[in-house]
Amino acid sequence: MTKAFTDSTVLHNGVKMPWLGFGVWQISEGASVVDAVRSAIETGYRSIDTAAAYRNEAGVGQAIQESGIAREELFVTTKVWNADQGYDSTLAAFEQSRKLLGLEYLDLYLIHWPTKGKYKDTWRAIEKIYADGLARAIGVCNFQTHHLEDLKADAKVIPMVNQVEYHPLLAQQPLRQYCRENNIQLEAWSPLMQGNLDQPVLAEIAARYGKSAAQIVLRWDLQNEVVTIPKSTTPSRIRENTEIFDFELSAEDMARITALDAGRRFGPDPDNFNF
């Protein structure tokens, strides 16, 4: 089990991906994102997750350049947005992201949403990016089991990662099981339920371990073997989110947290979204 902040999972192609990363969704371009990413890297984060749709790739790239950390020590993820899906447009979108980030290669490139009628052509383009050595690993976001099955039918490469909304109120157990059986690493976005942490069970467990509710949830992610990418712009919170490697939740507490599952989404439903 994950023992240290520096621990990584190994994706099915042998690439190592840190268990704990830093997300930058809703952090605005410019000084805000530069400062947040710089703070995260100084704290010890080596995995940074952005997306074309976040419109902050240039700032992420600037913070990476200014960090002084060797490129090979970092794990950088970005995503192709829905409007850019399709074969040629995905290749162009990737080049644009690469240029904004100022990077020769990406560590992980993802399809942001399973846009109907387009994601198979998008995946073919991403397979080419992977074959050309421009992305060390490739994957998807927000794919349900049926999307993954559909993709697999024609794919040359099975996605290495599926990044989905995942937290105690949306434990996604059938999807988690499917991904495990197919060697697809599950990754959690909005792991802290967009701040909706006021659950009595979490408060009670947190008090017992001397941790915050957020730290309990992030630890639950890791013990479920789910990569997690909490976001914050506050240096103290950025650090607090890393202080989850000095304790372990009991099997009973893990089960109690999982039992909070109510199928509740704070983001869009991948089967019913229109953007």
TrEMBL record:
InterPro entries: AKR, AKR5G, Aldo/ket_reductase_CS, NAD(P)_OxRdtase_dom_sf, NADP_OxRdtase_dom. Substrate binds at residue 112. Residues 20-261 form the NADP-dependent oxidoreductase domain. Transmembrane segments: none annotated. This is Diketogulonate reductase-like aldo/keto reductase. One of its GO terms (molecular function) is oxidoreductase activity, acting on the CH-OH group of donors, NAD or NADP as acceptor. Gene3D superfamilies: NADP-dependent oxidoreductase domain. SUPFAM superfamilies: NAD(P)-linked oxidoreductase. It comes from Paenibacillus phyllosphaerae.
